Amino acid sequence: MITADPLHAAAALAGAAAWLLAGRRPGPARARLLLAGVGVVERAPRRSPGWLLPGLRSRREWLCLPVATVLAVLGESVLPLIAGAAAVPLVGRRLRAGERRRERDRRAEAVIALCGAVAGELRAGFQPGQALVMAAGATGALGPAEPAVVAAARFGGDVPRALLDAAREPGTDGLAGVAACWRVALDSGAGLGAGLDRLEAALREERDQREELRAQLAGARSTTGLLALLPVVGLAMGWALGAEPLRVLLHTPAGLMCLLIGGALEAAGLCWAARIVRGGKR
Length: 282
What we know:
Radius of gyration: 27 Å
Number of helices: 12
Strand content: under 5%
Largest sheet: none
Helix content: over 70%
Structural class: mainly alpha
Distance between the termini: 48 Å
């Protein structure tokens, strides 16, 4: 059993927060600092405290541990620590899924910009290969496949095949449409700019539909999050009234049973709500 006063709890939280915020300089960056110039070691630029934020954003799931530490100290039990450690991989997976979704959206938006940029360069009088090279550098829509596509466009390679290879990345499905327009223009002589204009309009319409769907589901997500926080609000109200809810939940058989059943129902409710949201997306 853990016994400590609030001062120890604050110290533990501060130490955990400092560990999360502190970030060591990566090895390559340190090597560049030492080897910069010709035999001269440069002084590292003075950075503002804002440099701590990227480290915190990359380890947000570890914030579960300081919170669990405080609850463990206040409740004088190791159960919150166990729950916090178990929540770290789950929260991390959820955060990484959100990052992947944002990256897919960013790439899809870049593909839309690529279509418009290539069409604009064609209208300005540039050849298709030149237009693609300039638009690819300006939009960054091709990602890791950009060198292969640029080489194919400059030296007369198979541009549609290179675009199809680039379309395998998440969020770049629209590049398959660009490849199809390019192939049709090569085979039949149809206007590439007109096809890209129509493709851009279709991709924008698809993007707008996704955004509208997310806006409609935002209310359901907000309601789910609010319902998930209600037990925490109840515990806070009980603590304010002097009922010592943590002691009851963590140190009595009836409290442990209520904690187990309540946690199971909470998890089941969140899974059910997430399934409803996924069904709405489909």
